[in-house]
User: Fold this.
Amino acid sequence: MPNILVAYYSRGGNTKKMAEEIKEGIEQENVSCVIKPIAEVKIEKLLSYDGIVIGSPTYYGDMAAEVKKLLDESVKLHGQLESKVGAAFTSSKNIGGGNETTILAILKAMLVHGMIIQGNSSGDHYGPVSIGSPDERAQKQSFQLGKRVAQLVKRLS
Ligand SMILES: Cc1cc2nc3c(=O)[nH]c(=O)nc-3n(C[C@H](O)[C@H](O)[C@H](O)COP(=O)(O)O)c2cc1C
Assistant:
């Protein structure tokens, strides 16, 4: 069975709640999901996942340093994450507070790894965004992302 990692950094719990919704969506597609705080992710283990979903709070319009640290350390696997499915999500305080640039920063690193990213034509285009604690809309976007990532992983497997 395909296996997807949902890794997040969250000080206040908002990004963590999104990660939990994404996991629900993945599992509804009968795909295995491991959910972990970013500090517990072992770089070498990334090789064992078919999909990698990363969430960060928006910090100054960018990912938190803890998330960037993991991505920088992932250079050890450069070339080995090709064709895995990637996705990203964020929680910010403000609308227009740099949430989409945060998601795109994570997605850029995934593209450098040669990973496959699916956009969304009708929902949050780059990945789910919540303003503060995820409301019903953000929960739905997160759940849908989980489903879509799982569906793509199954198609590619
Ligand atoms: C260091 C720092 C920088 C932040 N920068 C931004 C920002 O640029 N834009 C914004 O909208 N919110 C910003 N925030 C607010 C957080 O993104 C927001 O509170 C988020 O929901 C926190 O997620 P968490 O509960 O998962 O930790 C910042 C918070 C901190 C601590």
Observations:
- The two ends are 9 Å apart (CA to CA).
